[in-house]
Amino acid sequence: MPTVQFIQFPSDHTFGTRAGKPTPKAMVADNDYALGRLVDAVSHSQFWKDTVILVTEDEAQDGPDHIDAHRTLALAISPYTQTGKVDSTFYSTVSMVRTIGLCAGIGPLTRFDDHATPLSASFTDKPVHRAYSVIRPTYPMNSLNAPRTLPQPPGGK
Length: 157
Fold this sequence. Notes:
Layout: H1 24-43, E1 53-56, E2 74-77, H2 93-104, H3 111-115
Antiparallel strand pairs: 1-2
């Protein structure tokens, strides 16, 4: 397996309520299921013991979308991830770049990632190698938005 891989799931955006397109809930369920399947596959593989999967949304950099423009989610998935602990450290997207570099043995690319806070407080030196088993979403991932209808004028004409 390569040391570093970048994966983008294509259903991470929605079409809103555009007629005939998947509903926003269907697209979110599909994207979450894709991430769950990735974690399931990796955590059941020989590579799990040396793996960290870092996850973030892609819209934190360009204004409001379906994620608040001032913050985004960040997930660290690994046998070495801390559990049962709240980490209130301020991190940025560059913190993820710094963490990837440290895990892969790659030096800083710029002074920005050189000075970024790595996600160190999110990890422990006592790994739990338990595998993750994906759970299929209960929301129907093939749900489509209904066709739009124009409002009818009074009297039905």
